[in-house]
UniProtKB/TrEMBL annotation:
The keyword NAD does not apply. This is Glycosyl transferase family 8. Coiled coil: none annotated. The keyword Transport does not apply. Keywords: Transferase. Pfam families: Glyco_transf_8. GO terms for molecular function: glycosyltransferase activity.
Amino acid sequence: MNIRKWYFAINETGIPGYKRLIQAAVLSCKQNTSLQPVCLYYGHDVPFLLWLESQNVKIIRHQSSILDAINSTPSTSQWNNITATGAYLRIDIPLIEQEDEFVLYTDCDVIFLKEITDFGETPEYFSGAPEDDPENWEFANTGVMVINIKNMRKVHADFSAFAAQNLTRFAPKGHGTYDQGALNAYFSGKWSRLTLDLNWKPYWGISPTTRIVHFHGPKPSHIEDLITDNTRHLPNVYKGLFAKNPTSMAYYLGRFHAIEQSRSANANGIRYLGYIDAIKTSNNEVTLSGWAVDLKGSPSPSFQVKIAGEEVDTISVLRKDRPDVSRSVAGAAIDSGYEITFPISEEILPEKIHVLPYNADEPLSFAKGFSLKRNN
């Protein structure tokens, strides 16, 4: 099964909320895979389309084949017809794609971490991975799918009619909202299994084999708020997913930031990129781990640590291999990771600690909210 194209879909009203996510998805696809990005778009001309075109994303303007049914269905508290005009674009991929037998589809909230040459078993219709429990295959999360174009085209008329007749049927089920519910109901018992590493959720833990990370539930901006305990505005389901594995959520947020920072550096001539992923405390010592890249000099810069503006002596500075960073950031060495240990004599607020490459004016970004308290 050979796959050359990656499809995603968005409507005009979705761009403001998903622009940051789409940029990371597109950049990571270009950096780490050989897939051709294809965007299905419904709406007017907006400046963001120019950015997509500058990244060689093929834009296909399209309106859903069930648009009339969507527009004639009143919005409710659990279902929005404007959102639906974007969500149901993807059901027409089998009609739009005329060259390839199989394509990859993902939602906009993914990042690609590795080249993808093996997509698993050949699906009769489409393949999907579980929703939030990696061992529960009763319901497909269709945020990442391998689509069998020929066979899905054969049933498109019947499936689209089913979807049009059941637009609001799945809304109360939460995870079945919009076309995901229709796909699961219509193809019950007929969809194939997608390997977990192609639809890996951040709260499942850190996996070295992950190829596509899907920010299912909390998006990167929500994870930033969850880490800093700024959660009053977030739904309980996001808090629950984050609580499953805060460490891996922070790790994949760091991977997302690496992609973002690479883009920012290229655009603004920034010299140093870096991130503090984690903090560990033991007695009167603190260990910071993360990564840093000097884009204009040594790929692995030297560091200084400052607390409240004053440089402190380090106990040790260890280099760590970070193949994820070397793949995501052009010019990064394989050993761009670091682990710095230094002493503290009292409890220090995390925001008072700065890690700076020598000759840098700005400190590395800090993974907000890690509590810096000595263990008893």
